[in-house]
Design a protein that fits this description.
heterodimer; A: alpha/beta; Aldehyde Dehydrogenase, Chain A, domain 1; five-stranded parallel β-sheet; 11 helices; 10 strands; about 45% helix; globular; B: alpha/beta; eight-stranded parallel β-sheet; Aldolase_TIM (chain B); Deoxyribose-phosphate aldolase (chain B); lyase (chain B); DeoC/FbaB/LacD_aldolase (chain B)
Chain lengths: ~290, ~325
């Protein structure tokens, strides 16, 4: 007979099945593959993450393209609200993210907590830019004629984002938030070694009024997913933050085929204050002429 | 499993007596074996799981393109739109001259002459012009109107006529009326091929689809077609499979081969290839040609072209690289 005490300690832990996030849904990889994710320091098994295939990447691009019209057409104010809502949801799951970041990056509890907080703050910082960026990078141009001449920033389209390899949450937020805040949609390839914070972030995105397909999260081998994304004719830009030098050079070549915008990795320090570069890298400038009324 | 829908005692060519009277026709159609709905759907689903890759996929994509009846059936059709559709049918992928042409351009009767002329100018005379007729899509008009509609389209140069059956009469059990209507339209077609549209979504049951198939084939249809594309339920794998079984059994019973055309709702290359697998497995090679199997579609062509580009270049294509209409 078991006593009530041993009864409670005999509870089986409930393991989490991490899944991809594509088009607002959480599918397994089309290929059925998974790989083992281990703790950074001890090498202990943490979870199985889906090993996405190029077909998952293709499906993600289709979902991102489908979502682009609605997301880019939403008002900047609305996008800002939704991004801020994401930060609220992150705040509510601080403990979980801190624990995942600690095991993913091999940090102490305090350090992981600090990075998680920095990631949430970063998200809030970018959320605020949604309805302010146009005033900074757009404007009225003086022209020699009776016209208003206005330049406004427009999102470029579907952006493939290779998330940083080492900074699993702060780095990810620092590359993802600037892409979507301006109205782009994103296909994110999470860090292969530390994908769990990214896959959990997808759960936050799914419950924050962010329309399905605006962010699509893939985990797997970076090179395997990045090659078809870089060559994909329906992807408008690629952020190479998570590629090593050799892969980045190859991807740049493939991206040239349809003149994708390319953001090269430059040894980013994710703790540093961000500037506008990551937002402006994925913008087009639209200039309209309008006659001045009598 | 192949369902032997032909009456077992029906020898070759012995079906002429079933159309001698209303009662005989009703007895024959009502006497067709009932459809095993679960079995049919399971069979159709199973045939959709084949993996078609590399050279077989390339063959299937080209075959599917050559089987398309490129269709525009909108109230807003203009001569310009029909002409651009003809140009697309004649040269689906301007960047790749090896792309096959489509089988036909499908338009409303008043646009048939425009399409015929445009195809001749493009040097694509081998592409047929298919015209819908007989008060498409509802079929709710008096018989003389339907016949005049048909003759008009044929006179305008249509090589193929897509007629709709009177679903009201069919559902009310007036089979002979539907039978005679098809016969009269067939006579009005002259040399033009006749495709008979059932509008499966309105026939409600698989049994009715099987009856309609036999009825149309007995009346002389050259093709049987699933639907108009104007209602909620269009071509589905199960009802297309059912019609394929009907044409197979009809040929076994009478020796006459009839074509099948699923229409509406087929949008992706993957779907199209599933249909081709179904054709191959159900009726075999004899039907794997644009003369005996067609797709009624418009957006399908773009997806086939994108898949074709993917196969030839190795990178995924996008909607920016195919024409919108």
């Amino acid at each position: 007979m078991s006593t009530p005490d041993t009864h409670s300690s005999a509870r089986l832990s409930v393991l989490k099945t991490y899944k991809l996030y594509v088009g607002g849904k959480f599918p397994r990889s089309e290929s059925g593959r998974v790989y083992e994710v281990t703790e950074a320091k001890s090498g202990q098994w943490l979870a199985n993450a889906p090993l996405a295939s190029r077909k998952d990447a293709r499906d993600a691009v289709v979902a991102a393209r489908k979502a682009f019209g609605g997301w880019s057409g939403a008002t900047a104010y609305n996008r800002g609200q939704i991004l801020y809502r994401i930060a609220e949801m992150l705040e509510g799951r601080r403990e979980q993210f801190a624990a995942e970041v600690a095991s993913a990056e091999g940090l102490s509890k305090a350090k992981a907590q600090a990075r998680t907080d920095a990631a949430i703050d970063r998200w809030v910082w970018y959320a605020g830019w949604s309805d302010k960026l146009a005033q900074v990078v757009g404007g009225g141009n003086p022209v020699a004629g009776p016209f208003f001449n206005l330049s406004t920033p427009e999102p470029t389209g579907v952006v493939a984002v290779l998330a940083p390899r080492s900074s699993s949450l702060l780095g990810l937020v620092s590359v993802l938030a600037p892409v979507i805040v301006t109205g782009n949609t994103a296909v994110v390839v999470a860090s292969k070694a530390a994908p769990l914070p990214a896959l959990s972030l997808a759960e936050v995105l799914a419950t924050s009024d962010l329309p399905g397909g605006v962010v699509n999260m893939l985990s797997g081998d970076t090179a395997e997913l990045a090659r078809p994304l870089a060559a994909h004719q329906d992807v408008n830009a690629i952020d190479l933050a998570g590629a090593d030098a050799e892969l980045a050079a190859e991807l740049e070549g493939a991206a040239a085929e349809n003149l994708k915008r390319v953001l090269r990795p430059d040894g980013d320090d994710w703790a540093a204050e961000p500037g506008l570069e990551r937002m402006t890298a994925f913008l087009e400038t639209k200039t309209v002429w309008h006659p001045i009324g009598a | 499993m192949p369902t032997d829908a032909a009456p077992r005692d029906a020898g070759r060519g012995s079906l002429s007596d079933v159309v001698t009277s209303d009662a005989a026709l009703r007895r024959f159609l009502q006497g067709l074996p009932g459809v095993d709905a679960v079995g049919l759907e399971a069979r159709a689903a199973a045939l959709g799981t084949r993996s078609i890759k590399t050279t077989a996929k390339a063959y299937a994509l080209d075959l599917a393109i050559s089987m398309i009846d490129l269709t525009t059936l909108e109230g807003a059709d203009t001569p310009g739109k029909v002409r651009s559709l003809c140009a697309k049918g004649a040269r689906p992928d301007p960047g790749d001259r090896s792309t096959p042409r489509v089988a036909a351009i499908c338009v409303y009767g008043d646009m048939a002459a425009v399409a015929k002329e445009a195809l001749a100018e493009l040097g694509a005379g081998e592409i047929n012009v298919a015209s819908v007729a007989t008060a498409f899509p509802s079929g709710r008009a008096a018989m003389p109107v339907k016949l005049a509609d048909t003759r008009d389209a044929v006179a305008a140069g249509a090589d193929e006529i897509d007629m709709v059956i009177d679903r009201g009469a069919f559902l009310a059990g007036r089979y002979m009326q539907v039978f005679e209507e098809i016969q009269e339209v067939k006579a009005a077609c002259g040399a033009a091929h006749l495709k008979v549209i059932f509008e499966n979504g309105e026939l409600a049951t698989y049994d009715n689809i099987r009856r309609a198939s036999w009825l149309a084939m007995l009346a002389g249809a050259d093709f049987i077609k699933t639907s108009t594309g104007k209602v909620a339920v269009n071509a589905t794998p199960p009802n297309t499979l059912l019609m394929l079984e009907a044409v197979r059994d009809f040929r076994a019973a009478t020796g006459r081969q009839v074509g099948v055309k699923p229409a509406g709702g087929i949008r992706t290359a993957k779907d199209a290839i599933k249909y081709l697998v179904m054709v191959n497995e159900t009726v075999g090679d004899d039907w794997l040609s644009p003369d005996w199997f067609r797709f009624g579609a418009s957006s399908l062509l773009n997806d086939l072209l994108m898949q074709r580009q993917k196969l030839s270049t190795g990178r995924y294509s996008g909607p920016d690289y195919v024409t919108v209409d």
